[in-house]
Amino acid sequence: MPERQEAHSQEQAAGAAEAMPAPGAGRPFSLRLRLLLLATTVMVVALVIVGIALSAAQHRAAEIALRERMESYVYLVLAASDVDPAGRLTVGDDLGDPRLTQPGSGIYAHLHDGGSHWSSPSALGVELPELEPLGAGEIQFSEPGPTLEFYAFRYGIAWELPDQTVVPMTVVILVEPGQLEAQLEGFQQSLVRSLAAAGVILVIAQLLMVLMAFRPLRRVAEDVAGIESGKSSRLQGRYPSELEPLARNVNRLLDTEQANQERYRNALDSLAHSLKTPLAVIRAGVHVEGEEARQAIDKAAEDMDHLISTRLHRAAASTRRTLAEPVAVLPEANRVLASLQKVYSQKMIAVDATITPELQFYGEKRDLLELMGNLFDNAFKYGASKVRISAAAVEGSSNRPGLWMLVEDDGPGIEPSRWSQLLQRGVRGDERVEGHGLGLAIVLELVSAYGGDISISRSELGGASVKIEIAPT
Questions:
Q1: Domains of the chain and CATH, by start
Q2: Cα end-to-end distance, the chain, whole Å
């Protein structure tokens, strides 16, 4: 015994060590914090990608607009240009845009025909690069690079003189990068401010949504804490449709636990009451000698053993698991029917069984076998030549449907006045038939344990009709 107690203590200590968190292990993040961190990370990444995409799109749009504006400067310069009969290039003072005449404006025009060159007044004091001339009709736009620090737009033309001499010319428009960078910088600053404001709004919205979404879970946690503290016995609140199955199954587990405890208590009470007589016999026989006293004590001991095993088996059989794995009904029904046809082979009972092939029982397999065993046995016992069995599912909003089962026979039947009596322990439908009158009482206990109902009526076959119905769980 000391060794067993020591081993048991070691097992409990090991279990406690496994249940305790490892040293240094921090408390895991809550679901709300995890969701907020994940949503915020995704949002920041998304806003950064959007910002980069918008900035790139704005850069392309600004370059396209700059190219179109530079092309318009080409036409302004050409409108103010002329070539005399001698082939000399002249450009008027009115260039159509003051930025071409304002020194250091950042926009410069240059025109050359191979021999002579002209630069806009805005290029005063600025050293402009010499670019290769283009052929007539050629257009080229280039961005700043290692060899050129300007945006450059070149336009090649051919000027025909009165003597049909063709003078090739190239108009070059140069724009300093700062012109475009200032525009892009202003856009990017405005974009960053807008995205930052949008991010703050989205974070606040996400926080509100998380708080609202997790409020029902907090209510569930508070209700469970109330159950743990003994202030309530079940979850009483109304929850969203996503949490309603959880609350329903928790309540069923609590109800099942309470019902099982009550059944065990009743079984032990019944056992204690039933053991009084055998114990009295043993107590009386202890002080009596002789064979008769010994036999009485042995008989009392046998009765006690039988009572203990019977009561405890009944208590165990009447308990249930709310979330038990489903049991296929048809194969088990066929097994029970095959056994009964062998037992009652002399009666030549014809069985008409209509059971949905996919029908399942969400409970203990032994409970299903005991239900069918008692119902089918009564039908075979009291039926004359025919037994009819029907069973199908009882659909509902739950994912675990219930079932109904109807067992009929062509026996003498049962008087309506005795229908409720037959559900009591020890009452038999026919005293001339062997039995203990426990079959329907056991069925009633099992069906009640699963929240179902049982009813007795007269069958179309002329005998009794017993129907059980177990609601969806």
A1: 29-231 (no CATH), 244-317 (no CATH), 326-470 (3.30.565.10)
A2: 45
Using CA atoms, how far residue 48 sits from 109, 198, 202, 233, 304, in Å, is 39, 12, 14, 51, 80
Q: How far is CA 336 from CA 57, 171, 229, 262, 351, in A?
A: 77, 104, 46, 30, 12
CA–CA separation, 221 and 227 (whole Å): 10
Q: How far apart are CA 120 and CA 107, in angstroms?
A: 9
Which DSSP string do the residues of 59-111 spell out, in sequence order? HHHHHHHHHHHHHHHHHHHHHTEEE-TT--EEE-S--S-GGGTSTTSSEEEEE
Residue 163's closest CA among 90, 85, 89? 85
How many of the other CB atoms lie within 10 Å of CB of 155?
Answer: 24
Distance, CA of 66 to CA of 68 (rounded, Å): 5
User: Which of 213, 165, 235 lies closest to 35 in space, CA to CA?
Assistant: 213
Sheet holding 139-142, edge to edge: 117-119, 107-112, 166-175, 151-160, 139-142
Residue-wise pLDDT tens digits, 64-119: 888 898 889 888 888 888 777 766 777 887 888 888 888 888 889 888 876 678 88
Choose among 174, 135, 133: nearest CA to 157.
135
